[in-house]
């Protein structure tokens, strides 16, 4: 069955090419712009579709629901279940899937209370097969690599893209090369790319340096580039937007909060919402706001600059997944903020650590980069940019086990420097103290254990909040 009906459109100059004509660096030869995948029903610059014969919204809703009970891998995938809105392959036989997507939407009642918001939800993309949102994009782009006959695929990564790429390449029988910044990614992620059989190269540079080297390499060798400049990644990464509204019985949340690193994911989710709106699947659009770590905040600086100039920064944050100073997709992300009316904020290391512990204490957990969403929404509520009576969804991008060292250091009170810890307000300091749960090392003696338990109960009586069940 032939599904392919797409083209690529330059997001800068608007030039349109066939998917097979794109060069190895996925940049427009005229203006160096990045591409978006477009379909006959995609909105033009004026917001209208090129074609009136658009897919029928009710039929799509029914079909997507039906596929959930199918035993076919392509239907069980939470990306390819929506394949009618990502016709990028000639044949579904080329789909490479680990049954990604179909991730849970959790309520976060205690985090909501701490934020001053009634209804706070988390879409947990860390519950994907390799533990991050990257799987939804990788199934799409790697399937294209397979269909186009590539033998080698490669990416530069802060750790999650590389884990996802290595896994999907292994499933497809392709060979993969990973470039990661030496010493600057979490061990769990490094172990994944080795486990899945990738050639793993640690370069003595940062993420932005890895991207430059890889860009040179793909110009010289027939390697398929799987960084997020590859527009097919976004086609997979837009599908969580479909899932969110489907999980809410087709009600549209008021606000989506996304972490920002290389800035492709926020743009992909925005594309998903805009396409659903275009097709009449949803009546309104949510705002999409992006949160960056204070030490890796080029989009935030652009946002508060009255001249709106983007200047790369030297990035530094313990949230290593978003330790990116020169984000490739910043224009796409900026476009989503502007067109959907969102906001951009930055959060400190102390605020990230607190938010991560609060998400952990809900029994959900996430990696540090994901926790910027909770830290950021607190600020957006305080600034009046998020309606406390509205419905907000945090996009949790990575699983808590991705960076267990961070969590251990936090609970042992060894994570933050004294200067960072001193930035906490008295309320935040009290919250840290209540959340920290360092392990106790005791003699294997029941009396000793009982005494320790009594001491612990007395010490925590005052701070323990009653549990609220999580839906
Ligand atoms: N959260 C996590 C857990 C990530 O791994 C990333 C990016 C982001 C958020 C930011 O998403 O780049 O689309 O704005 N990780 C990339 C990687 C860069 O190589 O794994 P973005």
Which regions have little confidence, pLDDT < 50, spanning 5+ residues?
467-471
Kindly report the spatial arrangement of strands forming the biggest sheet: 4-5-13-10-11-12
The structural class is: alpha/beta
How many angstroms separate the termini?
40 Å
Largest β sheet strand count, sense and barrel closure: 6 strands, mixed
* Ligands, deduplicated: ligand F0G
Average pLDDT confidence is: 94
Q: Helix amount, in percent?
A: 25-40%
Shape: globular
Number of distinct beta strands: 13
Number of helices: 18
Cα-atom Rg, whole angstroms? 22 Å
Assembly level: single chain
Strand content: 5-15%
What does this structure look like?
- The chain is α/β, with parallel strands linked by helices.
- The protein starts with 6 loop residues before the first strand and ends in a 10-residue tail after the last helix.
- A six-stranded mixed beta sheet has the order 4-5-13-10-11-12, sandwiched between helices.
- The protein has helices spanning 57-67, 73-76, 109-115, 134-147, 160-172, 187-195, 207-220, 231-237, 239-247, 264-278, 298-304, 330-340, 349-360, 368-382, 404-411, 418-422, 426-435, 446-461, and strands spanning 7-10, 16-18, 35-38, 105-107, 119-124, 152-156, 175-181, 199-203, 223-225, 255-259, 287-293, 344-347, 391-396.
- Helix 5 packs parallel to helix 6 and helix 13 crosses helix 17 (426-435).
- Helix 5 (160-172) links the parallel strand 6 and strand 7.
- The longest helix is centred in the C-terminal third of the chain and has 16 residues, at 446-461.
- It contains 18 helices and 13 strands.
- Helices cover 40% and strands 13% of the residues.
- Residues 132, 134, 157-161, 228, 259-265, 321-322, 367, 369-370, 397-398 line the site of ligand F0G.
